[in-house]
Specification:
This protein is mainly beta and 175 residues long. The chain is built from 3 helices and 11 strands; from the N terminus they run βββββαββββββαα. The strands form 2 sheets. Strands 8-1-2-11-10-9 form a 6-stranded mixed sheet. The longest helix is centred in the C-terminal third of the chain and has 10 residues, at 151-160.
Length: 175
């Protein structure tokens, strides 16, 4: 395993969520908030499949990514009371990641985090900071959201397709 794929081994609080019945976690420090699934996602033409579009959350434009599609995990149908959006912010751009269910915030000690070793996973190993194991043997894959989301690509899509702040349609006669 190369040095860059070694887990950070820094424990702490993580937001635990599911993607197709498997547990994943991200550092709580990367999370701004969690919201329910938005019905008003504005699609962006010619965007990658995982890039669902934009929403306006309290006056802020947020790019929405389906994390299941981005990580090549089976995408189940959205469930009204479970599917959530995890809001993160990188370089001033807010990004929402669609997940199947947000379960809990959990403290994970550094001693419970081991390196990722699976060669058969569909998830790119560069996204993974390690695997946390519970006393009962349950595993949680810990993700680096910055690497998962390919921030540079998202920033480019967001800036190129930023939705207007208003629902007004310009008058064609005035043009």
């Amino acid at each position: 395993m190369s040095v860059e794929n070694q887990p950070k081994k820094n424990g702490g609080k993580h937001l635990i969520f599911t993607l197709h019945e498997e547990d994943y976690g991200v550092s709580l420090g990367d999370v701004k908030e969690v919201i329910s699934m938005a019905n008003n996602i504005r699609p962006v033409p010619q965007a990658p499949d995982y890039y669902k579009g934009l929403i306006n959350l309290r006056g802020k434009i947020i790019s929405i990514v389906d994390l299941r599609i981005k990580l090549a995990v089976k995408a189940d149908a959205y469930q009204e009371k479970k599917t959530s959006i995890i809001i993160t912010e990188f370089e001033g751009i807010m990004i929402g990641s669609i997940v199947d269910d947000v379960k809990k915030v959990k403290s994970i000690p550094a001693t419970a985090i081991e390196p990722w070793r699976s060669e058969s996973s569909k998830v790119d190993q560069n996204f993974i900071t390690g695997v946390a194991k519970d006393d009962d043997g349950a595993l949680t894959i810990l993700l680096d959201m910055r690497k998962c989301l390919d921030i540079d690509e998202i920033i480019t899509l967001h800036k190129a397709n930023k939705a207007p702040q208003t629902d007004e349609i310009p008058d064609k006669k005035a043009a």
